[in-house]
Design goal:
By secondary structure, this protein is an alpha/beta fold. It folds into two domains: 137 residues, Response regulator (Rossmann fold); 55 residues, Orthogonal Bundle (Arc Repressor Mutant, subunit A), CATH 1.10.10.10. The protein is 47% helix and 13% strand. The protein has ten helices and six strands, in the order βαβαβαβαβαβααααα. A six-stranded parallel beta sheet has the order 2-1-3-4-5-6, sandwiched between helices. α5 links the parallel β5 and β6. It is elongated. The N and C termini lie far apart (40 Å).
Length: 216
């Protein structure tokens, strides 16, 4: 991996300890230099606009710039650019459809946080050759998908995210409706819409998703 000059990286995660851990590991042999860090999607967008870099290592669980539930909307817009740094997602998400959706968007690698830090360097090596790297846990999650299962990289609206957040806190649909001054039918529709965007087909899958994003 070593070159005449180190590769430049931006690291983004809403947990400062994770940012430091990834930064320290990437810089341990001088092949990669972390030129900026971010703790939310807005800071990531500002860093990418202001500092040239070759790689972005980013969580997707950070709140989006416009109130979305995650950073996928920003990454989707970013991935459309013809000239851009390579993007490696580092996540606790193990929902196969969402990970497959990221692959379809053109992401350069996905690393499950439960896997070894060595996967960071492996992802760089694969991405440099134009491939898409999947760490062992991410590969397993995608591999469990049925062949006919659609790939989804869902982006919830601000209201759908609020419905999910309150639902995770233990409120029932009619209680959420009362809080928002809406009908129970409207809230139930928003809940179903959010589940559909994420490819969640059951209450069990919804609870598991909420657990993965830290709401329960």
């Amino acid at each position: 991996m070593r070159d005449k000059s180190p590769l430049r990286a931006v690291v983004a995660d809403d947990h400062p300890a994770v940012v430091k851990g990834i930064k320290d590991f990437l810089e341990r042999d001088g092949a990669i230099r972390v030129v900026a860090t971010a703790e939310n999607t807005l800071q990531l967008a500002e860093a990418v606009d202001s500092v040239p870099c070759d790689y972005i290592f980013a969580d997707i669980g950070m709140q989006g710039i416009d109130g979305e539930s995650n950073s996928i909307a920003f990454l989707k817009r970013f991935l459309w650019q013809k000239t851009r740094p390579r993007v490696i997602v580092v996540t606790m998400m193990s929902h196969g459809r969402m990970l497959a959706g990221l692959i379809e968007l053109g992401i350069d690698g996905i690393i499950d946080k439960r896997d070894s830090l060595e996967c960071l360097f492996e992802a760089v090596s694969v991405a440099q050759t134009g491939g898409c790297y999947l760490s062992p846990c991410a590969s397993e999650a995608v591999g469990r998908l049925a062949g006919s299962s659609p790939a989804l990289a869902g982006v919830l609206s601000k209201r759908e995210w609020e419905v999910f957040r309150l639902y995770a806190s233990g409120l029932l649909v009619h209680e959420i409706a009362k809080r928002f001054g809406r009908s129970s039918k409207t809230i139930a529709t928003q809940k179903r819409s959010g589940m559909r965007k994420l490819g969640l087909e059951s209450e069990g899958e919804l609870v598991e998703y909420l657990r993965q994003v830290g709401l329960v």
